[in-house]
């Protein structure tokens, strides 16, 4: 199991620069004063947890991160809360998001082919390991792929991940539209193959600078139709 810090409290942390986030959460650097060690502190607003599905997503992320000991998955060190927020104290991936590296490398091609080969190889194996342990990741995209200080890749944000039995297929449609596999869009059920499809989309994006189905002129429904019916 992942190592945790049961004795850390919010008062022990010096919270600093913002690393990222979305509509309902943000991630900041947090340093434990007594050790000087820096972590990533993910804060989720309790007011945003308005339904059972959102609550289950938060608990699922906590459970999966706490129970997954893998060098390619960000480590959960502690879970904290105050009146307004729930916090996950996570391993700090100091090298930043893959998305940042893709944008920095523009104009296209986004990254050199040699670098892309390393990225894809470092992602394919942990996705397979998770699958063999009964976990579907389900949200592979550049903002969820992080680099540590040594340049090794880490998967982050397990809110859409799901435990599945061997041979089971997931039928729920979650994730980011540009990276959804045709079988997921069609509701036929999806498994490891859909994760590899997302990896292929990421490969294309890393080389070309944008996903293969990046259409500015269509909404999510039209995007899904094109993913399902247009040739890859």
TrEMBL record:
Organism per entry: Diacronema lutheri
Under Gene Ontology molecular function, one entry of this record is: cAMP-dependent protein kinase activity
Q: Which PANTHER family match?
A: CAMP-DEPENDENT PROTEIN KINASE CATALYTIC SUBUNIT PRKX, CYCLIC NUCLEOTIDE-DEPENDENT PROTEIN KINASE
Q: Does the keyword Transferase apply?
A: yes
Q: Does the record carry Nucleotide-binding as a key word?
A: yes
Enumerate the residues binding ATP: 46
Which PROSITE patterns would you find in this protein's record? PROTEIN_KINASE_ATP, PROTEIN_KINASE_DOM, PROTEIN_KINASE_ST
What superkingdom does the record give? Eukaryota
Name assigned to this protein: Protein kinase domain-containing protein
Any one annotated GO CC term: cAMP-dependent protein kinase complex
